[in-house]
Amino acid sequence: MDGGAGPSLFPLHRCKTLHLVRHAQGIHNIEGDKNYKAYLSPEYFDAQLTPLGWQQVDNLRKHVHGSGLSKRIDLVITSPLLRTLQTAVGVFGGEGYTDGMDVLPLMVANAGNSGRAAISSLNCPPVVAVELCREHYGVHPCDKRRNISDYQFLFPAIDFSLIENDEDILGNSDIRETKEEVGARGLKFMNWLWTRKEKEIAIVTHSGFLFHTLSSFGNDCHPLVRREISKRFANCELRSMVIVDRSMTGSDASTTDYPGKIPAGLDLPSDVVDEEKLEKEGPDSGFT
To answer: What distance in Å separates the CA atoms of residue 31 and residue 41, rounded to the nearest whole number?
Structure first.
């Protein structure tokens, strides 16, 4: 069945489940909601979460654990900005960290002036920082990041190895990335996901990135479904979706399919017998 009028069917191993999360409230969101020009203020460089934002993180964390989602996620991908890093570890990280543990903490105490205790990396999925899922590059101080070496001190157990440059070369442009460029980068990110072996992935990112990326999807769906896909995210909103590999980009074999015929034996289906007999005897043979 083709088109958007009915259900679609795809092999399971050509699908990934994505849990998309917009960061919790940052200090830039408060003034930016009142006056867009506030986003140009150097005061909001690499904006951290507000106390309200941390409450939003705590509530989403309760939902993630209460729903059983925390046990299913194989990987957490986060934008390498302070507000997304804080949201990612606050929602998907382990329980409290205490000195003397044999593992590095996901976040040290009071990271980004948060006033929060350290967060453990025990009993939680790995967290990887990826530049491709950042907010618009350029101009806005709130969307610029610190040096990766600074983040590595604040978030010791996060994997920053996929980020090429310590300094923020991408964010320091004096030209704001267009929405079309963000959308194209988002599609590149989606294609990159197929290079990962993980099947259930949480992605902590930004409003603009999510909106312009997801607006490219759902054109073959009912308008209400398309709107459900691409509508704007609230702070700390989580939306779960399935992405399908239609173009054979992924190469992983199914882990659940079973070939059958073990041990081998005759198994010609009855409908094939009917078709072969009809072809042999002709349509006027009286066979039905």
So the answer is: 10
Beta-strand runs (E) in 134-232: 200-205
Give dist(CA 40, CA 231) in Å, integer. 25
- Single pTM value for the model: 0.88
Q: Please tell me the distance from the alpha carbon of residue 100 to that of residue 57, in angstroms, as a whole number.
A: 26
3-state secondary structure of 270: helix
Please work out, in degrees rounded to the nearest 5, the angle formed at the alpha carbon of residue 86 by the alpha carbons of 152 and 133: 80
Of 182, 151, 192, nearest to 168 by C-alpha is 151
97: pLDDT strictly greater than 70: yes
- pLDDT tens digits along 132-168: 999 999 889 999 999 999 999 999 999 999 999 999 9
CA–CA separation, 259 vs 261, rounded Å? 7
Residue 120 main-chain phi, psi, to 5 deg: -80, 155
Q: What is the dihedral of CA 145, 195, 92, 48, to 10 degrees?
A: 10
Question: Which tokens go with 215?
Answer: 């607006």
Distance CA 115, CA 237 (A): 23
Q: Residue 265 and residue 258: Cα distance in Å, rounded?
A: 16
Asked if residues 88 and 78 have their Cβ atoms less than 8 Å apart, the reply is yes
Amino acid at 252: D
Query: Which position has the token pair 């409230």?
Result: 25
Residue 48 neighbours by CB distance under 10 Å: 21
Residues labelled catalytic: 23, 135
Q: Which run of H or E residues covers position 23?
A: none
How far apart are alpha carbons 235 and 259 in whole angstroms?
46
The residues that bridge with 128 in the sheet, in sequence order, are 77, 159
For 197-226, write each residue's pLDDT tens digit: 999 999 999 999 999 999 998 888 888 988
| Of 162-166, 227-231, 257-261, the least confident | 257-261
pLDDT of residue 96: 79
